[in-house]
Amino acid sequence: MKTKSLKNIEEKMSGLDSGSLRYHILESAKDFKTSWVELGRALYSAWKDKMYKEWGYSTFDAYTSKEIGIRKPTAIKLLKSYFFLEKEEPAYLNREYRQEAEASAVPGYESINLLRLAKSKKELDSQDYTSLKNDIFEKGKDASEVRKHMAVMIRERKELDPTEAWEQRKSATVKRFLSNLKALKQEIETAKLLPFPVIKEMNELISRIESELP
Taking the complete model, does pTM exceed 0.85, yes or no? Predict the structure, then answer.
């Protein structure tokens, strides 16, 4: 964070109860890089219970932006990354793990967000997920390295399954053609450029093409 943001945080902390959630969030934000998990945990509580409204903010975005100097995309990633760990990898939320792990092996929220996205990608299987998880938690790879590894995995899977890749290209091309055909049909119908029987045949052709899509 910029010095101005840190100064703003410290000023807000000075007038708060040190045992409150609001104070804890601000304190965690000061040490954003190494304690993003604590910040994510606290922000999740504030978001879930809408506590930011009690603190004078109408929306969560306004609260994170004005009070702790975090932009909306970053706040959303923090929430999703923390919730993902809580649901899928709760062992890594233990304070003991973060204290005992070497600094280089403590994953950042960007890496966890990539792992979250990998979990839902149909091109990747459980073995791929485990490999990426080891990259992050055991080898301490940063987000850029994890992103490259994930891209290679996806590309290899597509190369190993040419039939599926061909089906995807076919579907995308047919959908694009269908969209253009519908637009032209609408233009012709509106301007009455062709007789009704021809337009009817176009509608039938569109229906036939749609039936070919998965």
Answer: no
